[in-house]
Design goal:
Rossmann fold, 5-stranded parallel sheet
């Protein structure tokens, strides 16, 4: 029998503790090992309950989330922490401070009706807990389900919501999406999942239409695990890099501006949150703003960034596929595409298209990825020329950019 990924929930609101705990307990493979109403109690309970991951509120009495993270650092505790964050500007700023202090990632706190926000919070929470908790649990000798197992449960929940929304087709949808009807309630069948880890596929072979040329632009797609991974890359990037770097990091609106500012503190290049019609300059980094797709448009006067709110692709806006598609079309073999840690497959198809056009491509390796989802699919599609560890990614990007200038 598999072990559960154990979670400590820390929030001063009893309502939020119960909400988060209910999501966790309703997910096979996750369990709540302890609850705390402030950071001080959480520190005490970490020693007792030995969680694999912590969900942490920021604003709490006695010891708030920032103080908790500072104390965690002093005590050399390495358990991953997911921050519960407000969407307000001040909340975004504090969230970036939390990441700088060692938090792994963040979750936007539900506001308004709890029932209305429950489904969106649940999916994101399960994604983060399973991703960071899996890595920590495995490192400490536990036998837990892989992240793909939790993706399966997220998809089942999506199916349940679909059934509820499509009442006219309820019977057909119930059968198709493998849920059971008991009176008027939809009951999940997550506890009936039979799980076999996906088999590793051999990489497809792509024969590029042209040889790789000089690199005029670098495009990066990244998701779960991205905030800290990008910090690692950009603090070590070549300060003399001549090419512009465009980044799609899956992140909610309201956070990307603060994220760009936090990267700018540690990156030797200038980092900006991208704006529509912004001129693309060499040696600058552009972060796609939350809730906007980012593409490149070439003009006689030079390339510019265009933003749009066209429909989500692969469930995301911004989407790495949208950026990569634009780069493949405009730059063909004069580009470098990089795909890094993330759940799902966003970016994989169009990275393969970049490779087909002759672009240089890199993918983060399995061992260093928080979630080997996006880079795995890209590798299987033949879109990854070379797999690189996180610790070597900055050097690999820098050396390719220098070599093919």
């Amino acid at each position: 029998m598999k072990d559960d990924i154990s979670v400590l929930v820390c929030d001063d609101s009893a309502l939020m503790r119960n909400l988060i705990s209910r999501i966790i307990e309703n997910t096979q493979g996750l369990s709540v090992c302890a609850k705390a109403m402030n950071g001080q109690i959480a520190l005490e309970k970490i020693a007792e309950s030995k969680p694999d991951v912590v969900v942490l509120d920021i604003e709490m009495p006695v010891m708030n989330g920032i103080e908790f993270l500072k104390e965690r650092k002093k005590l050399h505790l390495d358990v991953p922490v997911i921050v519960l964050s407000s969407i307000a500007t001040e909340g975004a700023s504090v969230t970036m401070e939390a990441l700088e202090l060692g938090a792994s990632d963040f979750l936007t706190k539900p506001n308004g009706s709890v029932s209305a926000d429950l489904s969106t919070v649940a999916d994101r929470l399960v994604e983060l807990l399973s991703s960071y908790g899996f890595a920590y649990a495995i490192m400490h000798g536990k036998d837990v389900y892989e992240p793909d197992f939790f993706i399966r449960q997220i998809k089942l929940r999506e199916a349940e919501r679909f059934v509820l929304e499509q009442k006219k087709e309820k019977i057909e949808a119930l059968q198709e999406h493998n849920v059971e009807k008991i009176t008027d309630k939809i009951v999940p069948v997550a506890n009936k999942i039979e799980w076999n880890p996906p088999e590793k596929k051999q990489a497809a072979v792509i024969r590029p239409l042209r040889d790789g040329g000089k690199i005029d632009i670098i495009a990066i797609g990244i998701s779960t695990g991205g905030p800290n991974a990008l910090r690692e890359v950009f603090k070590l990037i070549d300060p003399h890099l001549k090419q512009p770097i465009l980044v799609v990091q899956h992140m909610p609106a309201g956070f990307t501006k603060e994220f760009a500012m936090s990267l700018n503190k540690i990156c030797p290049l200038e980092v900006h949150e991208a704006e529509d019609e912004m001129k693309i300059e060499g040696g600058h980094v552009y972060i796609a703003p939350g809730n906007f797709h980012m593409v490149v448009e070439k003009r006689p006067s030079g390339a510019v960034i265009r933003l749009s709110q066209e429909p989500q692709r692969n469930g995301h806006r911004p989407s790495a596929d949208v950026l990569f598609e634009s780069v493949a079309r405009n730059y063909r073999n004069n580009a470098l595409g990089v795909i890094m840690t993330g759940m799902g497959r966003d970016g994989a198809t169009q990275l393969a298209e970049m490779r087909k056009q002759g672009a240089w491509t890199l993918g983060q390796d399995e061992q260093s990825s928080i979630v080997y989802g996006m880079p795995r699919v890209a590798f299987e599609l033949g879109g990854v020329q070379k797999q690189v560890s996180l610790k070597n990614m900055a050097d690999e990007i820098s050396s390719l950019a220098r070599l093919h200038l």
